[in-house]
Amino acid sequence: MATEINFLGHASFQINTGDHTILIDPFLTDNPAASANADDIHADFILISHGHFDHVGDVAAIANRTKATIVGCFEITEWFEKNHGVENAIGMNLGGGVDLPFGRTKITPAVHSSQLPDGSYGGIAGGLLVTFADGNVYFAGDTALFLDMQLIGRAGLELAVLPIGDHFTMGPDDAIEAVKMLQPKRVLPFHYNTWPPIEQDVDAWAEKVRAETDAEPVVLAPGGSLSL
Ligand code: NI
Ligand code: MN
Asked: Which-ligand-closest: CA of 51?
């Protein structure tokens, strides 16, 4: 089957490859935009971009219930092992990749902070470049615009998943600049409209993507999905 990416609201995604289920940044319980429940969602792997609460909120509960393997920067995976009893973890750092059963997963740089919910040091915020059987997907994570996105785009991207909310991350205009550097076939916006400070007109942004770049915008409401 084609790899399916399901938007769970805010910055959370569930990916189904047919053989594996992967969660990215699960934050459902206190997420006003969540389209799924942390108590019954399945995962084989949980990928984590950085330590902020709106990205790790349900990591421990889901990992401990499903025995999923968590993957992220070393400081974050170690914190979950020591403080939350998570049993299966792969700690990495920026620029490094690992070959996982569903594809190679590399942590890319991001320009953002990464404190964990209890104030612990969470290392440095990252993004995720995942090579699925159907192509490369770049999950930018929370980040400012940065010129090295040009290098990430050289991998050849089927899809770029970019924050557009402004205030805590890139806003809509910087996300357009990111699309121009990354040159993905399709671009999916996230990290907007969850709370008032990050409200955006996503349809206006999608129009601008069509007008100014070669990428096709894919706007998903929470619960919506796309196939690679
Ligand atoms: Ni953040
Ligand atoms: Mn965030």
From this structure: 1
Nearest residue to 141 (alpha-carbon basis) of 62, 203, 59, 54: 54
For the chain, domain boundaries: 4-216
Do residues 225 and 36 lie in contact, with contact meaning Cβ atoms separated by under 8 Å? Answer: no
Query: What pLDDT, on the 0 to 100 scale, is given for residue 1?
Result: 81
CA of 115 to the centre of ligand 1 (A): 9
Cα(131) to centroid of ligand 2, in Å? Answer: 23
Distance 33 CA to ligand 1 centre (A): 16
127 neighbors 109 (Cβ within 8 angstroms): yes
Interval 94-138: pLDDT, tens: 999 999 999 999 999 999 999 999 999 999 999 999 999 999 999
98 torsion bin: left (phi>0), alpha (psi -120 to 50), beta (else): beta
- The partner residues of 132 in beta bridges, in order of sequence, read 135
pLDDT for 58 equals 98
Q: Which CATH superfamily is domain 4-216 in?
A: Ribonuclease Z/Hydroxyacylglutathione hydrolase-like (3.60.15.10)
Q: What is the pTM of this model?
A: 0.97
Question: Which residues are within 8 A (CB) of 200 and not within 5 positions of it... i.e. 6 or more apart?
Answer: 164, 165, 166, 171, 172, 192, 193
Distance 139 CA to ligand 2 centre (A): 13
> What's the gap in Å between 1 CA and the centre of ligand 1?
33
